[in-house]
Design a protein that fits this description.
The chain is an alpha+beta fold and about 325 residues long. It contains six helices and twelve strands. Helix 4 packs across helix 5 and helix 5 crosses helix 6. The model has no long low-confidence stretch (mean pLDDT about 95).
Length: about 325
């Protein structure tokens, strides 16, 4: 892989499903979430891989395919390695198969792989005289998904992790009241009225990184931060806090995540404001209102919360006497 040009190729939309994979158990329990693990009866992923190396240059400049591993072979490699994977997490699998690529093909200098969950949820079934969750039938969920990225590079005889993050994608949260937006700059361009008690509908992508590159695999379950727990923290903080802005909300969510999981290095947010527009603002005899979808464009925020932020927030709470 050269340093003065972009040069990768790969395969995307590689779907792989495995039944009865190793369960995820023994994770750290936190007060904001009842999630205690996953049976992994159905484990589904949509994966993409891109590989780099200086020896691929001639395939672009000369049409020489002698070093090119067909992307169809890459697809087969990924899918078949899901059968030999002995772990329980998306993060663990993408690192396992990326490392296997570098071990199999010595002219690969780097591998970046992204695995996005294809989620399935157990459905209720009438069993043994009662309604219970089935361990046989699962529905394909259209809700938020988990994702993991890993980038491995070859350093002489060693393989090292260059980049890694875990994510929750497309988390959509609506809070009906207890949100405000006021005190912002007012000038000749301002048409937005201040609102001290608005509904707030947000879209969130959350990405977190670990201090120790071994922790994302889930090999040591107590050092693993499950995506289900991270999104439960986001919902819990949204419920607890009076929200003066989306910026403030994501900051406090991030501090809480890093407080609960000190093994993490940081957490980055991509947020969008999708708050509904009011159609009927006063319905007699009720505090309800009628809304419709907002018109584009949409406001957005991007922000990384660090361990230093979380430590400062913890000290502030201690000084104020609030519960940490």
């Amino acid at each position: 892989m050269t340093t003065d040009r972009t040069m990768f190729y790969g395969k995307q939309d590689v779907f792989a499903y495995r039944t009865y994979m190793k369960p995820l158990k023994g994770i750290r329990q936190i007060p904001e979430s009842s999630f205690a693990g996953n049976e992994n009866i159905v484990f589904g992923l949509n994966l993409s891989v891109r590989v780099g190396g200086a020896e691929f240059l001639s395939s672009f400049t000369e049409g020489d395919n002698s070093k090119v591993v067909a992307t169809d072979s890459m697809k087969n490699f990924i899918q078949r390695h899901l059968a030999s994977y002995e772990g329980a997490t998306i993060e663990g699998f993408v690192e396992y198969v990326s490392r296997a690529f570098l071990e199999k093909y010595p002219h690969f200098e780097s591998v970046q792989m992204i695995g996005e969950e294809v989620p399935f949820e157990s459905v209720p079934a009438y069993t043994d005289g009662g309604l219970k969750y089935s361990n046989l039938v699962f529905k394909h969920s259209r809700n938020e998904t988990s994702q993991a990225l890993v980038e491995l590079v070859r350093k002489g005889t060693y393989i090292e992790v260059k980049n890694q993050y875990s994510s929750v994608l497309d988390l959509q949260l609506m809070k009906v009241k207890g949100n405000s937006f006021a005190g912002y700059v007012h000038d000749e361009y301002t048409t937005l009225p201040e609102d001290t008690n608005r509904p707030l509908f947000i879209y969130l992508n959350l990405h977190w990184q670990y201090e120790d590159g071994a922790d994302p695999s889930g090999t040591e379950p107590l050092q693993y931060a499950a995506a289900e727990q991270v999104k439960d923290i986001a919902a819990s903080v949204f419920h607890e806090k009076t929200t003066p802005s989306i910026q403030s909300l994501i900051y406090h969510i991030g501090c809480r995540v890093l407080e609960r999981f000190p093994q993490l290095k940081n957490i980055t947010f991509e947020s969008q404001n999708r708050t509904w527009e009011t159609v009927v603002g006063d319905i007699p005899g009720t505090e309800g209102k009628v809304y419709t979808e907002p018109r584009p464009p949409y406001g957005f925020q991007e922000f990384t919360v660090t361990k230093e932020d979380a430590a400062r927030e913890k000290e502030k709470l201690k000084s104020s006497g609030e519960k940490v």
